[in-house]
Structure formats: structure tokens, C-alpha cells
Design brief:
The chain is of the alpha/beta class. The protein contains seven helices and twelve strands. It folds into two domains: 31 residues, no CATH class; 211 residues, Glucose Oxidase, domain 1, CATH 3.50.30.50. Helix 6 packs parallel to helix 7. The structure holds zinc ion (ZN).
Length: 275
């Protein structure tokens, strides 16, 4: 059964990765997605519950139990209703979140959400400084260490180490307060606007993710990193977990959000296939 599952995933990648005019085998050989074989699946998703962390001004997750028990016809039946803001827990920011002409979540090409990925680990610095801004040097240092450029068309994940604090709001966000007045008390690391600008001008990435509540750091007032990345139709994944279990390169991401028509974002199930 396990072998069958692996075969299905591999087939899926060949289909996604190839031009329909090509034979699947050629697509497999020509593609730089040579990460089809994997030995481990890492779930990078927090579950949704009463504890799920939302932006301090967003409506939190609610689950209403509609049914849970034996019916009069003798079978068990369970069903719930849920409500959620788009931006909370592990979720995606669609480009339109900060770019008027940007793609809505249903319009993001799946090619931007599935593919080869790298990880930049800045956790040593970020755990010493809650307001740490990931810099151009952090990207250049990764390239020097790995002896390669950030590959074309890849998904970049940023590890700050902050998911270890989740779901403790004080440690993860910097405050337990909610509402507009709590925004000034947010302290968590993020990607500097300069590094975002460098990425979009000098490298060609498909999407980006981080293990904090926002791709901009907590003290951001203008959300410039969002504006820069989403303005280039590069979606952002936020509130990731288990990023520490990933290598720095050579893995594949599958990040499939709820396909909300016209949505500015939405709940995301994201996994990594690791060799
Ligand atoms: Zn968001």
C-alpha cells in the first residue's frame, strides 16, 4: 500500500511538472524537480483549534459541533461547522492581500505552490533578538555555504525557531492582548524589506514561507516586505511549524490552501517531501 502511495505522488509530480506535449519520462529527466523520491513526509502545518494563533485584529477559529453520536437509525454520525478569518494559523497570503491587482487565492497557479524548496536557518540570531530582520547577508551566506545560488523557481522557507513557542501568545507574538491597540506590542522576527527587494530583483522564487505570524516582523508599520513580495505575485506562507526538521536544500513542498474564490488568503495544509 505504501509503495502504491509513493507511485501516485510521483505520477502526480510528473503530470504537474511537464508540458502536456512531452512524454512524462522526458519531463522527468529534463525537470530539475529530481526530488520525486522521498523517504519522509514532514507536516509543516499547525492544527486549527481554540488555541490557534490569529492576527490580533482577526476573528479566531470557532468549531460548532452539529452532530456527534448515534443516530436514531443506529449509525454513528459526526459533523461540524467552522468559522475562521483567512489570516490565522498556518495560512497563505495571496498576492491581493497587499497588491490591488494581485492574484486572489483561487488564482494562484499551483506551480507556485508545489515544487523544489530550500531552507534558510536564522534561528540562532532570531532567538537572541525578537525583532530580528532577516537580511540580504543571510541569503548570501546560505549561497556561500551551499556553493550555489538560490535556485530558479524554488520555494524559500525561513526558519526563525519561533514555532517552538506556539501556541503561547506572549512568547510567540510578544503579547497576549488582542485588538488594534495590541499591534504596537507585537515582537517577532521577519524578513527585512531590503532582503525582500533583493530577492525579487536578483533571484526568481515561486513562493516564500516563515515560522512566525507574518513575513514582516512584528514591529513593522508599513508591511513593506508584504508589499514587495505580493506585488510580484509571490505568495507567502505564515505560521509554519516543524521547519527545523528540514534540510537546507533538496526537498519538495506541497502547499495547498483552501480555494476561496476571491480570497486574500486562507487556511493552508503544507507538507514537505524529504529524501
Ligand atoms: Zn496572512
Amino acid at each position: 500500500m505504501k509503495a502504491i502511495k509513493f507511485f501516485l505522488v510521483i505520477t502526480m509530480f510528473v503530470l504537474i511538472g511537464c508540458n502536456t506535449n512531452q512524454k512524462p519520462l522526458e519531463a522527468h529527466e529534463n525537470s530539475n524537480m529530481n526530488t520525486f523520491q522521498f523517504s519522509e513526509i514532514v507536516d509543516l502545518t499547525h492544527d486549527f483549534s481554540k488555541e490557534t494563533i490569529y492576527w490580533v485584529t482577526a476573528k479566531e477559529f470557532e468549531l460548532d459541533v452539529v452532530a456527534h453520536g448515534e443516530t436514531e437509525h443506529g449509525f454513528f454520525y459526526a459533523a461540524n461547522n467552522f468559522t475562521t478569518a483567512e489570516h490565522g494559523g498556518t495560512h497563505i497570503d495571496a498576492p491581493i492581500h497587499f497588491a490591488e491587482d494581485g492574484q486572489t487565492v483561487d488564482e494562484i497557479p499551483v506551480e507556485n505552490l508545489v515544487g523544489h524548496a530550500i531552507k534558510i536557518d536564522v534561528s540562532k540570531k532570531a532567538l537572541k533578538d525578537r525583532d530580528y530582520l532577516i537580511s540580504i547577508d543571510d541569503f548570501l551566506n546560505w549561497e556561500k555555504r551551499e556553493n550555489m545560488q538560490i535556485p530558479d523557481g524554488c520555494i524559500v522557507l525561513l526558519e526563525t525557531g519561533f514555532s517552538r513557542f506556539y501556541p503561547n501568545k506572549l512568547k510567540y507574538l510578544g503579547t497576549e492582548m488582542r485588538g488594534p491597540e495590541a499591534v504596537k506590542d507585537l515582537h517577532f522576527p521577519g524578513l527585512s524589506p531590503e532582503a525582500a527587494e533583493w530577492l525579487v530583483k536578483n533571484r526568481n522564487i515561486h513562493s516564500i514561507g516563515i515560522d512566525t505570524p507574518s513575513i514582516d516582523y512584528g514591529q513593522s508599520e508599513k508591511f513593506k516586505t508584504h508589499v514587495i513580495l505580493l506585488g510580484e505575485n509571490i505568495p507567502a506562507f505564515e505560521n509554519l511549524t516543524n521547519v527545523d526538521q528540514l534540510p537546507s536544500k533538496g526537498f519538495t513542498i506541497i502547499a495547498l490552501p483552501m480555494k476561496i474564490k476571491g480570497g486574500s488568503g486562507g487556511p493552508l495544509r503544507i507538507i514537505a517531501l524529504v529524501k
